């Protein structure tokens, strides 16, 4: 059983993925962590994320376990992640790990849930259930601002909004594995949904598919 969740930044896909994994006992992989990790490695060497050789080397030597103390949730790392993510060599260096996770989830979990931008289209095109999660840009910027402002009170919501739009545009326009809804993905707009309501809607879809699969 593989559940794929894709969508733009702060649409709520990670929260849904976590709740789904807890509810169904599935292993969860936030694939954005991989791209953020590669970007963090590049930035921590004061290097330029647009340098394709440095980014590719970082992706090839990357180990997710070593990220424990790295602050990868900043908006700077998010922006650099979408730059390194446009590099095909970076993407192919990270692909195997994601596919292995889906095929053979850790701790013998009965299934896997992966969230990102290209899970339903490229990483797991045969996923059992696929979602494309969205929300209006204003709502997403507000959510992300609420998350970041406590640690950085100087952050302006307008700045976060601009960053999100730039990142969405870069993620959707790249040639390799652009952010896109798979043809068979269920669209879930969370703009006016609480986390509980979004989770209930996702569960209805998943339970329906599981019933049909027996
Ligand atoms: O993973 P992604 O970037 O798509 O978003 P997330 O980390 O799941 O959610 C971003 C923020 O929005 C978190 O603080 C969630 O608690 C919040 N959220 C929300 O307020 N309402 C929802 N329906 C979903 C998420
Ligand atoms: O949490 P948020 O939605 O803000 O971003 P993320 O999921 O942590 O992803 C950070 C960046 O990594 C995205 O803007 C994409 O450029 C890239 N990414 C990707 O290209 N493919 C994925 N499967 C996951 C993330």
Automatic annotation (TrEMBL):
Q: What family classification does the UniProt entry report for this protein?
A: Belongs to the cytidylate kinase family. Type 1 subfamily.
Which CDD domains does this one have? Answer: CMPK (cd02020)
Q: What is its main location?
A: cytoplasm
Q: Where in the cell is it found?
A: Cytoplasm
Which lineage? Bacteria, Pseudomonadati, Pseudomonadota, Alphaproteobacteria, Parvularculales
Q: Which UniProt keywords apply?
A: ATP-binding, Cytoplasm, Kinase, Nucleotide-binding, Transferase
Q: Where is the Cytidylate kinase domain?
A: 3-197
What InterPro entries does the database record attribute to this sequence?
A: Cytidylate_kin, Cytidylate_kinase_dom, P-loop_NTPase
Task: Locate the residues binding ATP.
Answer: 7-15
* Molecular function terms from GO: kinase activity
Q: What is its EC number?
A: 2.7.4.25
Under which main EC class is this enzyme filed? transferase
- Name of the molecule in the record: Cytidylate kinase
Q: SUPFAM superfamilies, alphabetically?
A: P-loop containing nucleoside triphosphate hydrolases
Primary gene name? cmk
The reaction(s) annotated as catalysed by this protein in its Swiss-Prot or TrEMBL entry are: CMP + ATP = CDP + ADP; dCMP + ATP = dCDP + ADP
Q: Which domain of life is it from?
A: Bacteria
């Amino acid at each position: 059983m593989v559940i794929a969740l894709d969508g733009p930044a702060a649409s709520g896909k990670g929260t849904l993925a976590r709740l789904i994994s807890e509810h169904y006992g599935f292993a969860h992989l936030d694939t954005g962590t991989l791209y953020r990790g590669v970007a963090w490695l590049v930035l921590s060497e004061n290097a330029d994320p647009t340098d394709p050789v440095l980014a590719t080397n970082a992706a090839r030597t990357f180990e997710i376990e070593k990220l424990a103390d790295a602050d990868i949730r900043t908006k700077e790392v998010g922006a650099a992640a979408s730059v390194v993510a446009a590099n095909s060599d970076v993407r192919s260096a990270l692909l195997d790990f994601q596919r292995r996770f889906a095929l053979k989830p850790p701790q013998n979990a009965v299934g896997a849930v992966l969230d990102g931008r290209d899970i339903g289209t490229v990483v797991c095109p045969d996923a059992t259930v696929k979602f494309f999660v969205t929300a209006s840009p204003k709502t997403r910027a507000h959510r992300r601002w609420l998350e970041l402002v406590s640690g950085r009170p100087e952050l302006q919501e307008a700045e976060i909004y601009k960053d999100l739009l730039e990142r969405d545009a870069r993620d959707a326009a790249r040639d390799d594995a652009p952010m896109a809804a798979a043809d068979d993905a269920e669209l879930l707009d969370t703009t006016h949904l609480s986390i509980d309501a979004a989770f209930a809607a996702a569960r209805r879809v998943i339970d329906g598919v599981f019933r049909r699969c027996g």
